[in-house]
Amino acid sequence: MDENTEILINQVRGLHREFEAFRRRLEIFRPLISTANVSSPPTAAELDSAFGQPAALGAGFVGYIDDNGAGATYWHTAVVNGAWAYVQMAKAV
User: Fold this and answer.
1) Number of other CB atoms surrounding residue 42 within 10 Å
2) Which end of the chain has the lower number of beta carbons within 10 A, N or C?
3) Are the CB atoms for 77 and 60 separated by under 8 Å?
4) Tens digits of per-residue pLDDT, 10-59?
5) Helix (H, G, I), strand (E, B) or coil at 54
6) H or E element in which residue 93 lies
7) Domain segments of the chain: what residues?
8) Are 67 and 38 contacting, i.e. CB atoms less than 8 angstroms apart?
9) What share of the chain is helix, strand, coil (3-state, %, to 5)?
10) What is the C-alpha separation between 22 and 80, in angstroms, rounded?
11) Is residue 49 within 8 Å of residue 36, measured between CB atoms?
12) Contact by Cβ (8 Å): 86, 62
């Protein structure tokens, strides 16, 4: 392989790394939406089941629950200080 080919391959690899880093950053801004059937308010166990353990998700994780997929009650959930936090939301009229 000549020098120019190696340079091109390294540039492509660098672009691929940059693209993957960018894609991961975009995922931060696209919260997961679950249609889990949860209590009112949801328990930590229900949120774990819908999204995973807070420790694995990391601080700042944000997800939404459309309770039972009914389109009536929603929960904005987030991982804060290693624990779940939530706010109930309602469909706009």
Assistant:
1) 22
2) C
3) no
4) 899 989 998 888 877 776 667 889 999 999 999 999 999 999 999 999 88
5) helix
6) none
7) 1-30, 31-93
8) yes
9) 45, 25, 30
10) 24
11) yes
12) no
